Amino acid sequence: GTDTHLILIDLRDLNMLGNTSAEALEFANIITNRSSIPYDKNPPFYPSGLRLGTPGPTSRGMGSREMKLIGKWIASILAEVAEIKIFMNISNEQEKKEKIRKKIINNSKIIIKIKKQVKVLCKKFSIKKRGE
């Protein structure tokens, strides 16, 4: 089949680096990785993609309902971070600096809100110990 547990997101339409996206999502306790995408013109250290997978949530017992919710959270965070970058008039070259990425992320109001929701979801689906 064509089903896979890995997802690769092309961020070029958002004009945002994978670094900023991954760091913003991590601040909300959603762990992803920056990743190069096919035909990416950016160097591997500053790629235009984001990679995520479903093994973590499924190992906690989450299903399609929770995956849809996580997807909405990811989309909301990426959209707001992209808007903040535009509002602050930050170029891709400037975005390569960690302090600039932190500045973008610290201006997000939705990340804090979603971080709280992620914690609630994770408490409902705690990690099981061996033998449980």
Characterization of this structure:
It is built from six helices and three strands; from the N terminus they run βαββααααα. The protein is mainly alpha-helical and 132 residues long. The chain has a single domain, classed as Alpha-Beta Complex (Aspartate Aminotransferase, domain 1), CATH 3.90.1150. A three-stranded antiparallel sheet has the order 1-3-2, with helices on one face. Helix 1 packs across helix 3, helix 1 packs across helix 5 and helix 3 runs antiparallel to helix 6. The chain starts with 5 loop residues before the first strand and ends in an 8-residue tail after the last helix. The mean pLDDT is 93.
Q: Which helices and strands appear, and what pairs or packs with what?
A:
Layout: E1 6-10, H1 18-27, E2 33-35, E3 49-53, H2 55-59, H3 64-87, H4 92-95, H5 98-106, H6 110-124
Helix pairs in contact: 1-3, 1-5, 3-6
Sum up the structure in keywords.
6 helices, 10% strand, 132 residues, three-stranded antiparallel beta sheet, 51% helix, single chain, globular, mainly alpha, Aspartate Aminotransferase, domain 1
